[in-house]
């Protein structure tokens, strides 16, 4: 379906986007266009209109987002809601006007209710409010699912919606002010090992659980869905395996060779109590299954981060 196609990939220079662009090229896509924020502010409708005029795409894969970990979400709830809502709103509306063949929206696991039944099934997406610290981001992203379904019904826009769980891997954001849990922990433990620090501080109690998807698996899933899936229902992308934050911290400490103590700062929030996805729909609809185990993926991520320090 993508052979020779002109494809706009918003966020294509970012973490997940860079891997998706590599896979699209390998799978025979035609021209790829990666809009940069300096040229196109996607929160502005005029900029989105100009982007479509300049690139004349057949397809759009929308990955661009303003996002971060718990701390960043708590500091920027208004910005995260507005930016993510506005980008999707304008990109989908202009896709309709330009008769785009296919629009691929990458959503977020943060859209799920705080106390969704585990494992999270797509049909439970509306059974409650998201976890408070990232609700503005999650609600903004989830509203784009409604928009795509409405546009499919009224305008016949072929828009699909994917829900990846927490991603990690090489090229991730390792900025401690805005990074997610795995890169933040890797950076802390590598630095503590090198500095021979006696302790590392971790957020929360460690009791919350998370599921993690290696970035190259995620890129493969998005491209497979782009090529094979044309339905209106949202689809989870994950591994169906969860790990507590405490066990994750111990694993990363071991893999980085850190032998000091871990101190838990229980004044910091744990976030959503559990995250584990039901991934049967992705297997059924476009035959996606994750291939990279957590320890293997962590080793690759740690190796990449350490290679950047030399």
Please characterize this protein's 3D structure:
This protein has 310 residues and is an alpha/beta fold. The chain has a domain at 7-168 and 212-240 and 274-291: NAD(P)-binding Rossmann-like Domain (Rossmann fold). Helices cover 44% and strands 14% of the residues. The strands form 4 sheets. Strands 2-1-3-4-5-10 form a 6-stranded parallel sheet, sandwiched between helices. A two-stranded parallel ribbon has the order 6-9. Strands 7-12 form a two-stranded parallel ribbon. α1 links the parallel β1 (7-10) and β2 (32-33).
How would you sum up this structure in a few lines?
With 310 residues, this protein is of the alpha/beta class. It has a domain at 7-168 and 212-240 and 274-291: NAD(P)-binding Rossmann-like Domain (Rossmann fold, 3-Layer(aba) Sandwich), CATH 3.40.50.720.
Tell me the total number of β-strands: 12
CATH class label of the domain at 7-168 and 212-240 and 274-291: Alpha Beta
CATH architecture group name of the domain at 7-168 and 212-240 and 274-291:
3-Layer(aba) Sandwich
In oligomeric terms, what are we looking at?
single chain
Series of H and E elements = EHEHEHHEHEEHEEEHEEHEHH
CATH homology group of the domain at 7-168 and 212-240 and 274-291: NAD(P)-binding Rossmann-like Domain
Number of helices: 10
N/C terminus separation: 42 Å
Which stretches are low in confidence, meaning pLDDT under 50 for 5 or more residues running? none
What structural class do helix, strand and pairing data support?
Answer: alpha/beta
Rg from Cα:
19 Å
Task: List its salient traits.
single chain; 310 residues; alpha/beta; Rossmann fold; six-stranded parallel sheet; two-stranded parallel ribbon
